Amino acid sequence: MRIGIDVGGTNTDAVLMDGARVVSSAKTPTTANVSEGIAKAMRKVIADSGIDSAAIDGVMIGTTHFTNAVVERKRLTPTACIRLGLPATVCLPPMVDWPQDLRDLVGGESHLAHGGHEFDGREISAYQPDEVRDIAVRIRDAGLDAIAISSVFSPVNASFEEQTAEIVREAIPDANITLSSEIGRIGLLERENAAIMNSCLRGLAARTVDGFKAALDELQIRAPFYISQNDGTLMNADFAKEYPVLTFASGPTNSMRGAAFLSGLRDAIVVDVGGTTTDIGVLQHGFPRPAALAVDIGGVRTNFRMPDTYSIGLGGGSLIQSEPLKVGPQSVGYELTSKALVFGGDVLTATDMIVAGGSEVIGDVGAVSGLDADLVAATQARIMEMIAIAVDRMKTSATPVPVIVVGGGSILVTGEIEGASEIIKPEHFPVANAIGAAIAQVGGECDRIFSLAEMNRDDALNQAKAEASERAVNAGAAPESIEIVDVEEVPLAYLPGNATRIMVKAIGDLAGAPPSVSSMNGGN
Amino acid sequence: MQSVTLNDTQAIAIGAGILGTGGGGSTYLNRLRLDNELRASGKSLPIIRADDVPDDALVCAVGGMGAPTVSNEKLQEGREIMRAVRAMEAHLRQPMHAIIIGEIGGGNALGPLVAALQLGLPAVDGDSMGRAFPELQMDTFMIYGVAPSPFALADTQGNIAIFPRIGSAKQAEDFARSLTIEMGGSAALVMPVMSGAELKRSIIRDTLSLAKRIGENVLDCRARSIEPAETIATLCKGRILFTGKITDVERRTVQGFARGQLKIAPFHKGKPPPVLTGGPRGVGSTQVLQIDFQNENLIARLGDDVLCAVPDLITIVSLDDGEAIGTESLRYGLRVAVLGMPAPKELKSPEALAVVGPRTFGYDIDFCPLPGDLL
Asked: Minimal CA–CA distance to A485: which of A458, A460, A503?
């Protein structure tokens, strides 16, 4: 059995799953100390199910904790950046496009050195180990041990970043080093930004992951635990301490993966209704469709692949105005359970209107019995109209598609959605995100440059696929479940020997886990 | 417009993106550079009118050449254009009077302003394209008879090449592009060098102020939570050709240029898109809009009907915030408005259409202009 947990800004949700069956679920408020909320939620799902904690094989945690740390400017470690590429890149030094407050907090100490590569693999300038050694000493003398290293075109050739890490470790043996080539793709500032953010989050990551471990120990859960990544796969606890930045988009990803699992659908629109906003995303082959444009996190530009979601200001806590009729975008948010009429408050919310309409019984139904029936009907119609317009925006053809409705505010969906072939409100919809974490798979990647002069293309592709699969198995995947989900080939022009960069991603089920959504519906 | 200050750069960057017709590269990095340069100098950049340049003064157009993917990774050293201009002044033994923006569309609108600040020279309000184009001969200086030589190229390492003589603008394009590859895939370009009299005969005036005005209007729409597409179209004397979502992007690289085709399907729900006077064809249709692009957007069609063709401007903007979307960023699922805007009159003469008309780009159609002129 596995436990899936989603730590959101407002709620910490947990589910206990036996294979594909949800045994019990819980929603508890997120606590300032994240581990306490997690312990509470886990205790509840275990108590409700009556199982022995020894029966738990794995715990999967999705968390926005690291994203929030950047957004809230809290608990960040001062970090130095070394960039290799002189004389290029001087005009835009590291962290140049960070908001001033965040730059002040992270330190903004940056050093430029020689090295770097041209797009075709030539060196921009000769690498100078002594120059890097001097920089390492200066960083050490400044009392810093968190360091991000970037080099021009390091996704094509990472050797200078690797050499620099070795030299820095000579000066600062315990240095916390992130190489940009391990984090991102081509686009220097964005990749470097992600590497710096990763280093400045590592201290927090270590404490948080240790806190998770302590919470598990307290409940006598001996099973391994994993953290969800942006792409919906898992990383083990040690890896999460090294790469906290890879958790940034796991919230929406888990919610959409959970919707896919619960409905058994691989291609659909997912409508996730929360307390304040509704997020609409698109499932393609069981995974979220990625967004096209650069993604901003806490005011910093990165080039992560985030799910493409469209948000509207509609949720269970949305305020209702009658003349003229207006639903949201203001909301009572997490105070719904004290401020809404049905909960004894004095604010008219979308939830009150749904209860007044008679489709749900929540709280004190009498508190909304006096509402004007026409206004109730008009509000419900407006809510469905808002959702239908948002769904249409995300659809890419006029053909009706299935719509899966999840999230705590799903009661707002009371009728048909134009353009939807069917509306599916799966069981356990309020905790779809925790289920998405629980069913997550593990992955492995290969990203290498092959010389097609020495090897034919098929052999190179097969070798890359084998390497990615091997890494997935090493990460805990059951070998028979491995699928190659992504292959990208980028020829590097003007490099001797027909060099081609091949990127392959393999995904498999955790050994001993239930079959995944993709393999479950593999024949569709 | 008399100067560029820190308060103007965001608007200019947004407007230049919209005039970029999908090409010209991102304005993001050059705007950061311009902000840094303005902040460091503590001054504003003076802008002069083309007609205020003395006939016998020397001016030069400048810009960047190469692949945006490369310049987003190998950032510039920062003084490449400045060094090329200084080398040209030394070569001709005559100082420059002002700096000219070669291409107002995309990132190349802002690089020349950085160089002007570094050189302590004013920049002229205008450019030679009124949009973005892929090749050096596609500019009004070349079309209206300014000599392509001498021209200069400079790289990040400090290397500078000066071509005292070149046979034609097309040959300049070919030599410059080969050298750009050798220079690491991006280079600074000074071309052409001309007199004030030649400038006045061939420049498209006031395009920098237009970019700024477009950006200011977009920012105003954002502040008021209004979709900016209609405002931009009206300001540019154009129309909204289509609103919808991108359903298909197909691309390939042919001889160093990104070529592709894009399909946009209409929305089926919600408020119908705004209709301008005369009723733009295509809006509200159930048909799918197809755009052919080669670095820039070139032809927009609905079935067999050509709605807009180069040199008229076709720009795809994000529906919500009016940010221009470059052809490199086009992606399935984006929600967009397609704007059609008439080209400046300087691009529509017979001699101009021979260089920048649809046939130059391999489309066997006649240019049927949108009514009016951009400027």
From this structure: A503
Is the CB of residue A416 less than 8 Å away from at least one CB of chain B?
Answer: no
pLDDT band at B273 (very low <50, low <70, confident <90, very high): very low
Interface test mutation site (partner A, options B73, B155, B156, B319, max chain A beta carbons within 10 A) = B73
Instruction: Check: CB of residue A174 under 8 Å from CB of residue A510.
Output: no
Indicate yes or no: CB of A186 within 8 angstroms of CB of B73: yes
The reply to whether B268 touches chain A by the CB within 8 Å rule is yes
Label residue B279 by pLDDT band (50, 70, 90): very low
Which range has highest mean pLDDT (A127-136, A319-328, B247-256)? A127-136
Q: Say yes or no: domain A80-202 is CATH 2.30.30.
A: no
The domain made up of A266-428 has a fold known as: Nucleotidyltransferase; domain 5 (3.30.420)
- Whether residue B280 is predicted with pLDDT greater than 60 in this model: the reply is no
A295 in B contact zone (CB under 8 Å): no
User: pLDDT by residue (tens digit) across A212-260?
Assistant: 999 999 889 988 889 998 777 888 888 889 999 888 878 888 999 999 9
Q: Give chain B's mean pLDDT.
A: 91
β-pairing, B45-48 with B3-4?
A: antiparallel
pLDDT value of position A182: 86
Measure the CA angle with vertex B299, ends B295 and B305; round to 5°: 165
Cβ pair B126, B210 in contact under 8 A: no
User: Does B334 reach chain A within 8 Å, measured CB to CB?
Assistant: yes
Which residue in A312, A396, A397, A489 has the most chain B C-beta atoms within 10 A of its own C-beta, making it the best mutation to test that interface? A396
Give the pTM: 0.86
Chain B CB contacts of A401 under 8 Å are: none
Q: Which residues in B lie closer than 8 A to residue A188 (C-beta atoms)?
A: 72-75
A321-328: long-range contacts (C-beta < 8 A, 24 or more apart)?
Answer: A322/A372, A322/A375, A325/A375, A325/A378, A325/A379, A325/A382, A327/A379, A327/A382, A327/A383, A327/A386, A328/A276
**pLDDT higher than 70, residue B282:** no
Report the distance separating Cα A100 and Cα A102, nearest Å.
5
Asked, colleague to colleague, whether A80-202 and A266-428 share their fold, the answer is no
Cβ of residue B252 closer than 8 Å to a chain A Cβ? no
pLDDT band (50, 70, 90) for residue B258: low
Give yes or no for a contact between A93 and A110, defined as CB atoms under 8 angstroms apart.
Answer: yes
pLDDT at A434: 93
Residues of chain B neighbouring A395 (CB-CB closer than 8 A): 245
How does DSSP assign A104-137, residue by residue? HHH--EEEEEE--B-TTS-BSS---HHHHHHHHH
Chains A, B: CB contacts within 8 A come to 117
User: According to the model, what pLDDT value does residue A293 have?
Assistant: 66
Cα(A57)–Cα(A40) distance, rounded to whole angstroms? Answer: 19
How do the domains of chain A map onto residue ranges? 80-202, 266-428, 441-508
The whole-angstrom separation of Cα B54 and Cα A295 is 47
Give the Cα separation of B370 and B338 in Å (integer): 14
Mutate to test the interface with B, among A91, A280, A495 (most CBs of B within 10 A): A91
Q: Mean pLDDT score of chain A, rounded to an integer?
A: 87
The C-alpha atoms of residue A315 and residue A365 are separated, in whole angstroms, by 19
Q: How many CB atoms lie within 10 A of CB A459?
A: 12
Question: pLDDT tens, A172-202?
Answer: 999 999 999 888 778 899 999 999 999 999 9
Quote the CA–CA distance of A269 and A391 in Å, as a whole number: 7
